[in-house]
Amino acid sequence: MDQENNYLLRKLKTYPAPWHAKVHNPGSNHRTDVICDFAGEEILHFNQLNPKRTGEQYRNNIQLVAHAPALLSALIEYAMLEDARGTLQPNLVELIHAAGGPDLHSRLGQTAPKVSAPAPAVNPKDNVLKTTVKKQRRLPQNS
């Protein structure tokens, strides 16, 4: 239950996250997998009645739905990064909104604030005035 404190998931228009999968009647012909919300309320039932569906496909679909809130949270976070760069795409905004996420349509077309590059650092040695070197004096020699 690591998603209940995720602030991106708190205001979704879906059942409360995190979601998890439960199995009813395991090992029988009437096996049913159920996706439940944070409170344990059932959201969705999966029945493996179609012989064309493989067991792996069945399990992957269950896991995909069970992790849908976390996937939506990751999409929202990615959209926030794209918005900060000024490259938010309309199809991403539509997908998030259709999945029960926040409406980001107002952010489309807005450019990110331009941040000017910092001035290059100046080496203090470059600013020192060049001085002339006096002619060296010879020391007297002891004889």
Blueprint of the fold:
Elements: E1 20-24, E2 32-36, E3 42-47, H1 55-66, H2 68-85, H3 90-98
Antiparallel strand pairs: 1-2, 2-3
Low-pLDDT stretches are none
Mean pLDDT: 79
Secondary structure tally, helices: 3
| Rg, nearest Å | 32 Å
Provide the structure class. alpha+beta
The coarse overall form would be: elongated
Order of helices and strands: EEEHHH
Helix fraction, binned, reads 25-40%
Number of strands: 3
Largest sheet: 3 strands, antiparallel
**What strand order characterises the main sheet?**
1-2-3
The percentage of residues in β strands lies in 5-15%
Distance between the termini: 93 Å
Describe the structure.
The chain has helices spanning 55-66, 68-85, 90-98, and strands at 20-24, 32-36, 42-47. A 3-stranded antiparallel sheet has the order 1-2-3, with helices on one face. It is an alpha+beta fold and 143 residues long. It contains 3 helices and 3 strands; from the N terminus they run βββααα. The protein starts with 19 loop residues before the first strand and ends in a 45-residue tail after the last helix. The protein has a domain at 20-107.
